[in-house]
Specification:
The chain has helices spanning 38-51, 96-100, 109-126, 164-167, 169-182, 188-200, and strands spanning 9-12, 16-21, 24-32, 67-73, 76-82, 138-142, 148-152. With 206 residues, the chain is α+β, with helices and mostly antiparallel strands. It has one domain. A hairpin with a 2-residue loop joins strand 4 and strand 5 (76-82). Helix 3 (109-126) runs antiparallel to helix 5 (169-182). The chain is globular, with a radius of gyration of 17 Å. Bound molecules: adenosine-5'-triphosphate and magnesium ion. Residues 13, 136-137, 154 line the site of magnesium ion. The site of magnesium ion has 4 residues, from loops.
């Protein structure tokens, strides 16, 4: 049994709290909030089981945080993932949402837009889909050469009954492009508007 303490807390979304793995600083453990249905938590896990045979060595970069299975913790069942960290500082990478709201962000908007395009291409090429594509679910990893890689940390999967996109490149491309358009993941000003509206509507987690 892994003992998670308050000091291990990293951040949270609507469904889960995210903690440092107490025994491995390259991993994090996510724990479902009590009010969240277990079924909801397993949607993403089941998708990870579907994609676990993908040859990650063929990826241009590891564009999603890998899932490493379940563990028992003092706070209930935990789901273990790779922790996304900046190479420059070894700090946990901030999300795209953090950078959107930063006064003096260290990267220009164009840099993020280019990185989003690289993320999109990887998703198309490797047929990995993200249903919940949002700024808070994408970590921005800073590399040693001061370039960035966008890494999806939450929201992987799709609910297609007949998963043509899993089988055919044409459908994969259409699916990913549609998702980026619907989520407005093509411009940072569109993302800022989205977040502003969410805050105006009273959302605390945006
Ligand atoms: N693998 C990771 N590496 C670094 N930070 C992470 C990682 N996973 C999650 N985080 C941080 O923890 C936050 C919450 O995690 P996560 O998005 O998985 O929770 P959630 O409740 O499923 O979110 P949502 O409300 O979007 O459904 C993220 O927004 C991010 O800041
Ligand atoms: Mg999230």
């Amino acid at each position: 049994m892994i003992k998670i303490k308050d000091e291990h807390y990293i951040s949270e979304g609507l469904a889960r709290k995210c903690y440092f793995h107490p025994n491995d600083n390259n991993l994090c453990i996510k724990i479902g909030k009590p009010e969240v249905e277990v079924e909801h938590l397993y949607k993403e896990i089941n998708y990870f089981k579907k994609i676990e045979k993908k040859k990650t060595s063929k990826f241009h970069y590891q564009f999603y945080a890998e899932y490493h299975g379940e563990v028992e913790t003092n706070r209930g069942v935990g789901f273990v993932y790779s922790l996304v960290k900046d190479e420059t500082s070894q700090n946990i990478s901030l999300t795209l949402r953090h950078y959107l709201e930063m006064k003096n962000a260290p990267f220009k908007d164009d840099v993020f837009v280019e990185a989003l395009d690289r993320l999109k291409q990887q998703m198309i090429t490797h047929k990995v889909f993200v249903g919940d594509l949002r700024a808070r679910n994408i970590c921005c990893k800073i590399l040693l050469d001061n370039s960035i890689e966008l890494v999806v940390v939450d929201g992987l999967g799709h609910r297609d009954f007949l998963p043509f996109a899993d089988w055919f490149g044409f459908f994969a491309k259409k699916k990913v492009e549609r998702r980026f358009l619907r989520s407005k993941m093509y411009s940072l000003s569109a993302q800022r508007d989205l977040i502003k509206r969410m805050r105006e509507n009273g959302a605390t987690i945006v």
